[in-house]
Amino acid sequence: MKQKETIPYLIGKSIVGLLFLPFWYIQKCFKRDPRVWLFGSWFGQKYSDNSRALYEYVLEYDPDIKPMWITHNKEVYNRLKELNRPVQMANTIAGKIACLKAGVVFVTTSPDEMNSKYLNGAKMVWLWHGMPLKQIMADERKFLKTKQTLFKRFKVKINHVLFPYENKYRTDLVMNSSEFFTPFFSSAFQVQPNQVWTDGYPRNDALFSTYTENIVKEYRAKFPTAKFIIYMPTHRVNGLKGEPFNGFNGHGFNQEKFFKTLEDNDYVFFNKGHFFDSNANITLQNDRFVNVTDSCFDNLYTFVKDMDILITDYSSIYCDYILLGKPIILTPFDYNDYINNERPLYFDYNVWEGIKATNWNELTNILYQHSYHNPTDKEIDLFHKNRDGNSCRRITEHLKSTYNI
Q: Residue 353 has what pLDDT?
């Protein structure tokens, strides 16, 4: 649980920050091993995403590299220990030493996934966790700044001085799937375009896997002819404030019509909320409705690949899923509110080719009429330089060449 930021707490934190500053800068003098690669994911709480995909690839296929997973989550630590994979808890002595040795660090949400205090001098490679459809990082900060109090702005500036290790904008390289996104990444991470390297996302290699998740097998046995739908809305700001987003509240949702749509058209509907909305109270009960959490599968992308239709609003899962060439239905139910009060988008939403529904009634009609369609080759090529399952291999080779390994 996050410490309440009282005045005494902030003063104490500032004193500790000042005392640590000399060691932070001295770290630049340390000799780091370019073959030691550190990986973390989702604020140190999950074993997932691009970092996991690249970590597992390097571990299996590249003996030149010494990968290490760093986590804040004891369950993740125990799981990897049981699998005999290299892992350390971030705040232990061993974890801090690993951070001090690392030559290359891979991040998906924040350097705090590991132990950011001990990473000064390491190469920071941002794998990120989705193509930038909505404003992220520095661009998001500029947007949110207009809604912040003067005290909040002052606090942010002080933090950058006292706690440079909390600065999320230290970046050497950002991974990208298409030149289309390069200017957005460049702006968001405040780097030059040549620091944004285009190839593909490591996690998307799983979309080409032949592995089938147990939950898919279970429901395929139960509904052998059904089309599987996965609903993956993005999070809203309130989810970070303890008010998780529930896509089934409002916008004309009619439970009776929804269930009838599933039954009449032989659909199974999988609801997968965002990580920030994992505590949403979804009370729908039907054999053809499945509320999915991270515990229901091993890898989100080996699960997603076996879905027949994606429904989403503003999530970057859109850009990943189109690699499968399967139908996508877009649900910008709250479009105006989202871009004005959550985050603006980087480009016109109409660039996305999926059929759009502005409320649940339109969505159920689309499902009844089967009026969805597959993405075109033009759009897939717009968002992806490569259409294969070899991104991990190419990224590893590129980084080894870049850092002379």
A: 83
